[in-house]
Design brief:
Radius of gyration: 16 Å
CATH class: Mainly Alpha
CATH architecture: Orthogonal Bundle
Number of strands: 0
Order of helices and strands: HHHHHHHHHH
CATH topology: Hypothetical protein af1432
Number of helices: 10
Largest sheet: none
Strand content: under 5%
Structural class: mainly alpha
Shape: globular
Number of domains: 1
Helix content: 55-70%
Distance between the termini: 14 Å
Length: 174
């Protein structure tokens, strides 16, 4: 619950990126990837920056991981900008009514009711984001990390799994 309160506060207090943050973006993302990043709300831009900075504190220098940190939620922009209230409702529905959330999340945008859209975005944004980054020329590992960033991770069986665990930890903290 405290985490959700922090998210709302971050959304309400989101500020434009600093010159240092913009320089960080320029050192990580290609031009096409920066264009995707620009489709984010200020809150989501700040979130991506927080995630990549947390990863940097682990001394992990993998460029694909850094790109995924910045772009992992870009699929949320597919339907425009959802408000923090829309997102909170989707999370609450998932928590209180998991079967309903799964049903709505599996739906198609074209036939969805307005109240179902946040659940669809919550459930499908990882796949959409992976497609968007791939279309922008993203490398296969970045695309895979974005596609899997919401997956439950079991045993760490590969380098990709190790990087995914780092991404998920940083995402959960920010």
């Amino acid at each position: 619950m405290l985490y959700r309160v922090k998210q709302v506060l971050w959304a309400w207090t989101a500020r434009p990126l600093s010159d240092d943050d913009l320089a960080l973006l320029g050192s990580i993302l290609s031009r096409a990837e920066r264009e995707l990043f620009q489709t984010y709300t200020l809150n989501d831009q700040n979130h991506g920056i927080r995630v990549v900075k947390l990863i940097g504190k682990t001394n992990e220098a993998n460029m694909s991981l850094q790109k995924a940190a910045l772009l992992h939620d870009v699929g949320k922009t597919k339907v425009g900008r959802l408000s923090v209230i829309d997102r909170s409702i989707a999370v609450a529905v998932k928590k209180l009514f998991p079967a309903v959330s799964r049903g709505w999340g599996d739906g198609e945008l074209a036939s969805a009711k307005r109240y179902q859209i946040p659940s669809i975005v919550r459930a499908q944004h990882a796949a959409w984001g992976a497609e968007m980054v791939q279309a922008a020329g993203g490398d296969p590992l970045t695309v895979a990390l974005i596609r899997r960033h919401q997956d439950k991770l079991g045993a760490i069986d590969s380098e990709e799994d190790r990087l995914l665990q780092i991404l998920q930890t940083a995402d959960d903290l920010s």
